[in-house]
Amino acid sequence: MQLETYISDLLYRYDCVTVPGLGAFLTNRVSAKVHEITHTFYPPKKVLSFNEQLQNNDGLLANYIAEVEKIPYSTATEKIAKQVKSIKSYLVEGETIQFQNIGELILNTDGKIIFDPSTHINYLTDSFGLSHFTSSDINREVYKEEVEAIEEKAPIAFTPEKRSNLNLLKYAAAAVVVLGLSGFLGASYYNNSIESHNQLAQEQANEQLDAKVQEATFVISNPLPAATLSLEKKQTGNYHIVAGAFRIEANSDKKVKQLRDNGFKARKIGVNRYGLHEVVYGSFETRAEAQQELYNIRKEHNRDAWLLIKKLD
After folding, report:
1. In the prediction, which pLDDT does 260 show?
2. What are the DSSP calls for 244-283, one per residue?
3. CA distances (Å), 63 to each of 121, 279, 304, in order?
4. Distance between alpha carbon 130 and the CA centroid of its chain, in Å?
5. Where are the beta strands (DSSP E) in the chain?
6. Which of 27, 180, 242, 288 could form a disulfide with 46 if both were Cys (CB 3.0 to 4.6 A apart)?
7. Is beta strand 40-42 parallel, antiparallel or unpaired with respect to 45-51?
8. Can you give the pLDDT at residue 307?
9. Secondary structure letter of residue 112 according to DSSP
10. pLDDT of residue 51
11. What is the DSSP letter of 286?
12. Which of 99, 15, 17, 105 is nearest to 62 (CA)?
């Protein structure tokens, strides 16, 4: 089992991927930046880190392996535990464990796992297709320094004729500025006039339409009886507690009915990329609400439930 492949897949979608018994791989978003010396532009990215203290099984990795390999959840859990045991034995022997596209793990003298992240892949999907690039330096000519250097060698004497030319240039420049401002103000006035005209015309059209509606008389000879509709509020939010995924849609419908009979706001959220119909206990706006409900469901109803973070269309 290529454990690093599954971890790498999940890092694109989640900020934390826990490997039970080993630790958790975490991602932290970093903004775009420019290197001041090399003038290299770097796009936004996710920076990887590792926390050995987070070892409890949250079900994310095991459920993903179970879906991909089409095996039971318990079998996936056993396979993870077996590979973690092998990784730890190699670490104790002083070997370096390399997870492709993720990083390297090694044991220090204190018996703690040290993580050296890989920089080959950017797990931030918003930056897909972006790469770093280097911009060449911009050399600006400092005319003032050049003039001072020339004057030191050969001072420049301005005659009255040249000074008058300079004055003419100043006046010409001032005239250009005035004309530019006049044109800008004139264009602004014109645009504002058009906008006011359009608004007035729209208001007049609305008044005429209101007058026609008020003059019209509607007679309904056989009015229909009043109907009372009870509409269920549509669930929103990107945090979903998954109850299961089914290849046969009829089975997913049965699961939804079963959960609703038990008081849950269950529903189907579509077909995942493996062709399975996903059923959730409910959807939540915030991660805190979803985590609290997940804790209750695992405690009282289904210990294999897990949290899916997904934006639905």
Report:
1. 93
2. EEESSHHHHHHHHHHHHHTT---EEEEE-TTS-EEEEEEE
3. 24, 14, 8
4. 15
5. 16-19, 23-30, 33-34, 40-42, 45-51, 97-99, 103-107, 113-117, 133-134, 239-246, 267-271, 277-284, 306-309
6. 27
7. unpaired
8. 86
9. -
10. 92
11. S
12. 17
Residues 82 and 216: their CA atoms lie apart, in Å, by 80
pLDDT score of 17: 92
Q: How many CB atoms lie within 10 A of CB 64?
A: 20
Q: Do you know the residue count of the chain?
A: 313
What burial class does residue 207 get, using C-beta atoms within 10 Å of its C-beta: 0-12 exposed, 13-18 middle, 19+ buried? exposed
In degrees to the nearest 10, what's the CA dihedral of 120, 126, 132, 135?
180
Domain edges within the chain: 3-134, 239-309
Which of helix, strand or coil describes residue 203? Answer: helix
- Check residue 209 and give its pLDDT: 44
What's phi and psi for 309, nearest 5 deg? -105, 110
Residue with tokens 């934006």: 311
DSSP character string of 177-195: HHHHHHHHHHHHHHHHHHH
Q: What is the C-alpha separation between 149 and 60, in angstroms, rounded?
A: 71
pTM above 0.70, yes or no: no
Per the listing, tokens 């050296």 go with 116
14 — phi, psi (to 5°)?
A: -125, 155
pLDDT for 217 equals 42
pLDDT of residue 161: 46
Under-70 pLDDT residues of the chain: 1, 35-39, 41-42, 126-133, 135-234
Distance, CA of 156 to CA of 167 (rounded, Å): 17
Beta bridge partners of 46: 29
Domain 239-309 has CATH 3.30.70.1070: yes
